[in-house]
Hints:
The structure holds two protein chains of two kinds.
Chain A: H1 6-17, H2 21-37, H3 42-52, H4 55-66, H5 71-81, H6 84-96, H7 101-109, H8 113-125, H9 131-160, H10 172-181, H11 188-203, H12 212-235
Helix pairs in contact in A: 1-9, 2-3, 2-4, 2-9, 3-9, 4-5, 6-8, 8-9, 11-12
Chain B: H1 4-29, H2 36-42, H3 45-59, H4 69-85, H5 88-106
Helix pairs in contact in B: 4-5
Amino acid sequence: xxxxxxxxxxxxxxxxxxxxxxxxxxxxxxxxxxxxxxxxxxxxxxxxxxxxxxxxxxxxxxxxxxxxxxxxxxxxxxxxxxxxxxxxxxxxxxxxxxxxxxxxxxxxxxxxxxxxxxxxxxxxxxxxxxxxxxxxxxxxxxxxxxxxxxxxxxxxxxxxxxxxxxxxxxxxxxxxxxxxxxxxxxxxxxxxxxxxxxxxxxxxxxxxxxxxxxxxxxxxxxxxxxxxxxxxxxxx
Amino acid sequence: xxxxxxxxxxxxxxxxxxxxxxxxxxxxxxxxxxxxxxxxxxxxxxxxxxxxxxxxxxxxxxxxxxxxxxxxxxxxxxxxxxxxxxxxxxxxxxxxxxxxxxxxxxx
Lengths: 236, 107
């Protein structure tokens, strides 16, 4: 007996994805506003959001370009911030790896925190889903988030120049990022990673070419991984 | 001001690079398992790279490399509110309220 058709899987994804517009929307508005403040025009803002679809990486690139960092450093640092999508790709491969190539291309293009989190949880909970049902669920979960991502980028870009000049927008980025990170600090390795990254990035602030971000980020990742290993050995 | 050539190089490079990161395993690797050491490091990308980006913006937020008290207070309130509530919106709200309060009330 078929428990769900492809269409109902798509609708289930659409329903489960709906609350995430509350996360994607405000970040897209903020990107539109900050990018416009940095001098990007509407076409540039929209292309950026359409081509990259990665809030944190886009904010990072924007910040480093404003600091006049070399282009290579901008790219490497922004991609480093976005490394987690490679982990998502790995995590979804057992469930979607057998789908047709053109579908996997679109799955990859739309792979963000929300689409990964929702679909991975669903695929794990309902192992009897067929490949077409999984793909339909995935695209359903993406639909509203993507509409709001692009729509709110546009709204932010249109709004950017209309905002009062004395708003402390320079600090919107740290507040947005710290609010994303704080709820993740739930284990000792996560705390060690964050603390190491902060100390290293402050020590490396005068290192040329804005390399401090990479030094702090990589150092933090190593600290997290090592703390995890150390805890595992202590338990063993 | 960001010059157009740099901007478009970054947009296209970041688009291609992000796609390759996303496609890497779905497209190229298939369902072979990843080495454990790699997964162990990838787990900490977000909690390491985002604070590394923010820390200098917070600590050197004033003129000439000094610390602006309103920015430091807002950053600490954001972190504490987020860690306690486990909620992104509570953290943003608390941080923004602290920043705006400090900027407009204290001058």
